[in-house]
Amino acid sequence: MSFKIGKFSIGSDHRPFIIAEMSGNHNQSLDRALELVDAAAAAGAHALKLQTYTADTITIDHKGGLFDIKDENSLWKGKNLHDLYQEAHTPWEWHEPIFNRARELGMVGFSSPFDESAVDFLENLNVPAYKIASFESNHHPLLRKVAATGKPVIISSGASRLDEIYESVRVLREAGAKQICVLKCTSTYPATPENTNLRTIPVFREVFPDCTVGLSDHTMGIGVSVAAVALGACVIEKHFTLRRADGGVDSAFSLEPSELADLVTETERSWQAMGSVQLDTQKAEEKSRQFKRSIYVVQDISAGEVFTRENLRVIRPGDGMAPAFYEQVLGRKASADMKRGTPFKLFP
């Protein structure tokens, strides 16, 4: 299966579609946000993605309980959910100039809506696709709203059981979505290679035969994404920033521009290297066959002389008799004179 987002084709027969996720790395500066767009385009990313929400569309302003992040291992330990989302959100009035800049630079711009009002807003901006974030994948009213637009939908599977993401895809289908990409995702920030479990990707391809499959990658570096492409991922989503040292809510697990450029290059190489099943010599290799070994005359041989290990050897180049016949030839007699340095033929 394949489909298009803007001018870009998504599917196993096409180079990986690389999504640069800005998230909250604009650090509440529109100038920085536009600089991020420029950097993503210069790195070769195909899409620039935002997140469309406000603190009040995700949660309520309340302290205590699970509203406060107490996990010792969390990047956001000690923060309150409402405060965190207030810090991280992208102001809605920034969306249009950001998308316009992305379009001018040859990318497509779209977003992850976090509630139905965000979908209405994004429809007014005529976005070409939608992304469903992992923590919204069970938000069926949102799924139906997005599906009703008829636009391609990318959905992340983080923190979901297979039956839950299967149900989410079913809801999208029944509500009108025809072009769906399911992303393998590990919802830890950052994720580790050990908990990424890329072997899930081929399973997703079997479970969701009418969908494309990709990876939302929260690990550091690009190795995991490159491996994912080798396993069939058609879409790679990575958070990115200008400089991790600048800080920001997602900077710790975001790529810098040079790394994003490497991601684009190396995932495409991985896709190209997959090729097709090769069980014979390729046309490109034909000239190299001359460097294989074969049986060669290494001493002058007179007619009637016995072939020995001293006058015949298996050496390079490869235009003599195949080495498989070497033992059978030894002990036989030459039927004609043979010169040193000539390929051996039993019957010249």
TrEMBL record:
SMART domains: SAF
GO molecular function, one term: N-acylneuraminate-9-phosphate synthase activity
Organism: Neolewinella xylanilytica
Name of the featured protein: N-acetylneuraminate synthase
Regions that span the bilayer: none
PANTHER family: N-ACETYLNEURAMINATE SYNTHASE (PTHR42966), PSEUDAMINIC ACID SYNTHASE (PTHR42966:SF2)
GO annotation terms (biological process): carbohydrate biosynthetic process
SUPFAM superfamilies attached to this UniProt entry: AFP III-like domain (SSF51269), Aldolase (SSF51569)
Residues of the AFP-like domain: 294-344
Cited NCBIfam families: PseI
PROSITE patterns found in the cross-reference section: AFP_LIKE
InterPro entries from the UniProt entry: AFP_Neu5c_C_sf, Aldolase_TIM, PseI-like, PseI/NeuA/B-like_N, Pseudaminic_synth_PseI, SAF, SAF_AFP_Neu5Ac, SAF_PseI/NeuA/NeuB
